[in-house]
Amino acid sequence: MYNEIDLDKIDINSEPPEKEPDRQYYFMAKCRKWVKDFEQKNGRLPKAFVLNMGCQMNARDSEKLKGILLQMGMEAAEDETADLVLYNTCTVRDNANQKVYGRLGYLQTLKKKNSHMKIALCGCMMQEPEAVERIRKTYGFVDLIFGTHNIFKLAELFFQCLVDSAMVVDVWDSTDKSVEQLPTERKYFFKSGVNIMYGCDNFCSYCIVPYVRGRERSRPSKEILKEIRELAKDGVKEVMLLGQNVNSYGKNLAQEQICFGQLLRQVNEIEGIRRIRFMTSHPKDLSEDLIAAMRDCEKVCRHLHLPLQSGSSRILKLMNRRYTKEQYLELVERIRQAMPDISLTTDIIVGFPGETEEDFLETLDVVRKVRFDSAFTFLYSKRTGTPAASMEEQVPQELVKDRFDRLLKEVQRISSQVCMRDAKTVQKVLVEDENDHQKGYVSGRLSNNLLVHFPGDASLIGQIVPVELVEAKGFYYIGRQQSGSDAG
Fold this sequence. Notes:
The protein has helices at about 20-40, 55-70, 95-115, 130-140, 155-165, 210-215, 220-235, 260-270, 290-295, 315-320, 325-340, 355-370, 395-420; strands at about 45-50, 75, 85-90, 120-125, 145, 170, 190-195, 195-200, 215-220, 240, 275-280, 305, 345-350, 375-380, 425-435, 440-445, 450-455, 465-470, 475-480. By secondary structure, it is of the alpha/beta class.
C-alpha cells in the first residue's frame, strides 16, 4: 500500500487525518519538509541510526522504524554518530536494561558534539514505568520515549520532537490497534518477518513479556494473507510468521474462527512463497491440527522451535508452563511420528528458584531423550516485576554455573551428532549472504535452519539452490553446489 503514496502530494498545511495509517503519512510528509530544510542549511541529509536490541518481533519492528525514517528522506547511518539515534529496546533480562543505560552515557558525549542530534528510545523496556522514570530523572538529554504498542507513530512523535523543546513521552498501557500498512526497510530482499499476533497470555512466572507486550491480539487472517501476497510480489521467497505464542493464534479473534494450523494452510497456497517458518511455539498449545498442517504443507520448513525451559515437572509447575515432562515427551513423539525429519530446537533455563540436583537431572534426561538439534541455554536471572523474582530458594550462582556448564556440554555433544544426519546428501539451500570468513564462499540455510557454507558469489543470494553437503562440521556444513537453482 505505501508504495502507492506520494508524500509530496500530501497537503501538510491542512489538519492531520484522524484515520491510520493516513495520519502517519501526513506526518512523514511534514518530517520530509524538515529534512529538505536541514539539507539546505547543512549541505547534507540528516542521518538516522536504528539499533535493534531484542527478539525477532523487535527486529521486524525495527525494519518498520527504518522504513519510516527513510520514507521521510533521512539517510541510514552505520553507527551512533548520527542526527537521530533510535534504540528499539529489550527487557527480557535486567542486563538488557543495564546495557541501554550504559549506552546512553556514550550518546550524551556524542550529543554534546552534534547540536542536531535527537535520541529516541522505544520497545519493551519503555513499557516499564520505573525505567521511563529513571530516564526522565537521570538522562534528561533523551528526546523521545515510546513503547511497543505505538511503534507505528514514529513519524508523528518525531515531528513533535522537532516542535517541542521538552522530552516527548508517549507510552500506552495497551491497545487494540494494529497498524501494519507502513514503509518497511527489510534486511533481506528475499525473506521477511510477518506479525500475525501481538502480546502473550501465558504469564510464565519468570517472564516480563506479558507485562510489556500486553495481552494476546491476533491479526485478521485477511490482513496477514494480503501482506504476504504483497511480499511475494516483491520477491520474498521465505516468510517467518511471528508472535509470542503463534500456537494460540486466532483464539481472541471475534470476527472469524481460525486457528494457526488453518492459517499455515492458507499461507502455503500463496504463489511465490517457497518457505514458511514461524516462532515461537508454546508446547501447551501445539495441537494435532498444527502437526497435521506442518506435515501436509510442503512449504512449511522442517524446523520447530519448542521451548522446554525445564525437564522437571515440579519446576515447570513453578514456572507456570502448564505442561509436564511426560506431556512434553509425548508431544515430541507425536511430532516425530508425523515428521521423522523434523529438526527440533529449544530453550532451557538452568537454576530456576528451588531447582535441585534431581530437577536438573530431569532436564538432562529430556535433552538425552529428545536429542535436540540445538538448544539456547540460559542461566536463570532474577527479573524484577515477575513472580519468580520474589520466590524463596534462589539457587547459589556457583551451583547454577556448574549445572549450566554440564548442560551445555551435553547439548553440544548431542547436537554435533544430530546435525550430521544429512551429510553426503543433496539438500536445497536458500542463500543468504556472502561468507564473512572465507572469501569466495556464500552461506545459506537448509529447511531445518542449519547453516551451509559453499563456494559461490553474490549472484546466488536470494536463490534456492541444490547443494551437496560434503562435510559436517558439528553445527554447520561445508557444501558443494549442484547444477540447477530455484528448484522448488
